[in-house]
Amino acid sequence: MTGAAPTPRIDPLEAPYEPGIETLLSKWMPPGSPMEPLRLFRTLAVHDELAGRMRPLGGGILGHGRIAPREREIVIHRMCARTGAEYEWGVHVIAYGKPLGLTDAQIAATVTSDADDPAWSDADRLLIRLVDELHDTCTITPSLWSSLAERYRNDQLLELLIAAGWYRLLAGVILGIGIELEPWAARFPGR
């Protein structure tokens, strides 16, 4: 989590967009959004076929989940923080985290603390531990799995793993490309 502003290695597409790209970008953004498509989406659109294949999974994680949206966002925020993906963390803070009721202390704790932070409930701590173990070891200890399995069904456990993995993948893309931060998005604490 360095303080240096990223320099894009692949520039995002700029308007006016070709009709096919316009259609693709409109699918990535919420219906009727007055905002310009995100830099991430405009960069992915450089490879429109790949971007078109990525969108259904990303949209499915965000819009058709079997876990509570607040829990999903804890996983996303933590994975983005652990990987240093300030871009995606900041977008999710504004678009999802705050609207879903994550407190300022919880949002900051996704970046600055561990699962023992007093901002977290016992249930939230399981999610922080899940992301930390996946990030650090790409596996989950039997004791944590057992605790998670007491709280979540198998389909929900799969969704938690896939959400964490999806945002780890996006972090690699974002950091590898050097996507510039959105000017309206949140910044990591202390910036």
Question: Which helices and strands, and how do they pair?
Answer:
Elements: H1 19-28, H2 39-44, H3 48-63, H4 69-83, H5 86-97, H6 104-112, H7 122-137, H8 142-151, H9 154-177
Helix pairs in contact: 1-3, 4-5, 4-7, 4-9, 7-8, 7-9
- Secondary-structure element string: HHHHHHHHH
So what's the CATH class of the largest domain? Mainly Alpha
Mean residue pLDDT: 95
The count of DSSP E runs of length 2 or more, i.e. the number of strands, is 0
State the helix count. Answer: 9
Helix content: 55-70%
- Percent in strands: under 5%
CATH architecture identity of the largest domain: Up-down Bundle
Any idea what the CATH superfamily of the largest domain is called?
AhpD-like
What composes the largest sheet? none
Coarse morphology: globular
Number of domains: 2
Over the alpha carbons, how many angstroms does the gyration radius reach? Answer: 17 Å
Low-confidence stretches: none
For this structure, the CATH topology of the largest domain is AhpD-like
The end-to-end distance, rounded to whole angstroms, is: 10 Å
Structural class: mainly alpha
Overview in brief:
This protein is an all-alpha fold and 191 residues long. It is built from nine helices and no strands.
Walk me through what this model shows.
The protein has helices spanning 19-28, 39-44, 48-63, 69-83, 86-97, 104-112, 122-137, 142-151, 154-177. Helix content is 62%, strand content 0%. Helix 4 packs antiparallel against helix 5 (86-97), helix 4 packs parallel to helix 7 (122-137) and helix 4 (69-83) packs parallel to helix 9 (154-177). The protein folds into two domains: 19-63, no CATH class; 69-177, AhpD-like. It is an all-alpha fold. The mean pLDDT is 95.
